[in-house]
């Protein structure tokens, strides 16, 4: 299984991932479009040290609650890529997907129809990586096999332990 991963130690909240996503998906905030990806700040608890940053979009959950919550089948899980996709023609604008999604990923266009991150499925199907991952200057965002990402995390943890 291929997954997205964010290394919070590397994210600097530059917003390049948001701009790449907007470019890839023809999202124009000037006309009221809502970006699929957002960047935020993790405020530390008092006395805990530094501020952190994160980049978030649809998590493309294995057992996606938005897919289960959609009464019309407008949201579906792509069996090849495991991405949660959407079909505007089936959307009735009931917002059940939004109420089901713990991450607030589903968005709606000006006609009240579902729009959401597709994981750049067309890029991925053509052997390319998602736009947000490709553009990330610090390589905080990754898109890789789950086992490769897990190996990388173990190596980072080992390196931290060795340098302490």
Q: What's the shape?
A: globular
> What's the CATH class of the largest domain, please?
Alpha Beta
CATH topology-level fold name of the largest domain: Alpha-Beta Plaits
Mean of the pLDDT scores?
A: 88
Total DSSP helices: 6
End-to-end Cα distance, whole Å, is 33 Å
DSSP E strands, number: 8
Strand order of the largest sheet: 1-8
Please tell me how large the radius of gyration is. Answer: 17 Å
Strand content bin: 15-25%
Brief account:
This protein has 6 helices and 8 strands. The chain has 164 residues and is α+β, with helices and mostly antiparallel strands.
In words, what does this structure look like?
Helices cover 29% and strands 18% of the residues. It has six helices and eight strands, in the order E-H-E-E-H-E-E-H-E-E-H-H-E-H. The strands form four sheets. It has a two-stranded antiparallel sheet. The protein is an alpha+beta fold and 164 residues long. A hairpin with a 5-residue loop joins strand 6 and strand 7. The protein starts with a strand and ends with a helix. The longest helix has 18 residues. The protein has two domains: 104 residues, 2-Layer Sandwich (Alpha-Beta Plaits), CATH 3.30.70.20; 58 residues, Alpha-Beta Plaits (2-Layer Sandwich), CATH 3.30.70.20.
């Amino acid at each position: 299984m291929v997954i997205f991963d964010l290394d919070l130690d590397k994210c600097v909240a530059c917003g390049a991932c948001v701009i790449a996503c907007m470019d890839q998906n023809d999202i124009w905030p000037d006309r009221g479009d809502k970006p699929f990806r957002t960047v935020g700040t993790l405020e530390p608890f008092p006395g805990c040290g530094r501020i952190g940053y994160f980049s978030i979009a649809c998590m493309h959950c294995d057992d996606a609650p938005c897919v289960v919550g959609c009464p019309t089948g407008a949201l579906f899980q792509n069996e090849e890529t495991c991405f949660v996709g959407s079909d505007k023609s089936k959307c009735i604008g009931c917002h059940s997907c939004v109420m089901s999604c713990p991450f607030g990923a589903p968005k709606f266009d000006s006609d009240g129809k579902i729009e959401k991150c597709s994981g750049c499925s067309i890029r991925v199907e053509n052997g390319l990586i998602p736009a947000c991952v490709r553009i990330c200057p610090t390589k905080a965002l990754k898109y890789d096999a789950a086992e490769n990402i897990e190996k990388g995390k173990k190596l980072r943890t080992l390196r931290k332990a060795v340098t302490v």
